[in-house]
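Attaching the record inline, Q. Sequence:
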Amino acid sequence: MILIPRVVQRFLGWTVAAIVTAVFVSSQTRALELPGPVVVATNEYPPYSSTHLKDARIVLDILETVFENIGLPLEIWAVPWARGERMVLNGEIYASVPYFKTPDRSKVHDFSDPIIYSKNRFFYHKQKNPNQPDWQTLQDFKDYSLGAVKGYWYVPEFERNKLNLTYVHSDRVGLKMIVRKRLDYLVVDEIVGYYLLAQEAPASLYQIGVLDKAESIATFHLMVSRKFQNAKAITEEFNKGLKTIKDNGEYERIFKRYSVGEHLMVK
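Structure, as predicted:
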């Protein structure tokens, strides 16, 4: 976004300033030969992303701030995860978010610079499993039942280890099964897990624990199409804009608005 000094705004007025901004955005779109707004798909993954919860979309707020900063029009579409992945793969849209960068995904997709950290933990019911394992490898879970959301990053590795998996539609469903003691463990992003428990089962919140050792600590990215027009150039601009909002303090201010710990900031 073009930044017009306040003193100039006083002389020109907000109408002229808005026109200048619109012209700048239009010129940026033409320069990259875009057919229209840059479309990014997402689904409900609060508090990282949500298309109807205004206080549970920190990644989307970061995206909107970056795209405003670089002067490119952005549209966020709410679509099922699998459909969004197909649209990205086929070049129908620019990207989907938030996604981990994995070896399998990197074979067919490109990725932006990291946006935010994610700490993924094994959630369990304290009464069902009072003596939690001090796990070192996934084989330490071979005698337990684990929930698994199809399409999630951990599923291929869990399957290769031949763990006892129960496939569930979402983290929300899996956590309900943990609360009802129908599963031993479920891997969920730490802040997502506690957010969902507070929303869905607040009375059971203190009955649910997490293992000390995280399943993984990773970063979320834009998962970018290799077939979308000028995708590489858009990603380059996005990465520059992300660095800009980190340098000017807006990135940190977004985290503070959400009361999200600084340990999740990518510095």
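The chain has three domains: 1-31, 35-113+220-264, 118-217. Confidence is low (pLDDT under 50) at residues 1-27.

More tomorrow.
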